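Tutorial handout. Part one gives the primary structure; part two gives the three-dimensional structure as tokens.
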Amino acid sequence: MLKGLIGKKIGMTQIFDEQGVAITVTLIEAGPCYVTQVRMPEKEGYSSVQLGFGEANPKRLTGGQLGHLKANEIPPMRFLREFRSKDHGLKIGDKVTVVDTFSVGDRVDVVGVSKGKGFAGVVKRYHFHGMNATHGTSDRNRAPGSSGSGTTPGRVYKGHRNSGIWA
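Part two.
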């Protein structure tokens, strides 16, 4: 059986164990997913299952994606991901849910994509203190200040904390 699902993070909360200790947990809406394609070694050279998750507005999908899904009579899906699996026993159009896939006590690996935060200054990125808001400082409040030493070494060391893309 296929041991994989696509999901979406809903939020964070906490649960309490028998001793009353709070445990941080992440809530994930996992499934239902639909089988959108089954790849076989005879045709594609490897074996896998493509799952779709989250219905989408058809205007948001490309023509190729819509054609791929319409050929198999599947509603427009926002996310399509492939899972390598040899003997999965699934066919196109099957609905895969958490109850069918996992049982209580199973260990799972969660893979995700972090939110990009764009180009950030040193105050946001590295928690630099910033300068005084008074005593003549008008536009340098969130600036990093000096970044290197003088003549020796005459450069800024590699890996120095500075503004940039914050992932």
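Part three, for discussion. The chain has a mean pLDDT of 89. The helical segments are 41-44, 63-71, 98-101, 122-126.
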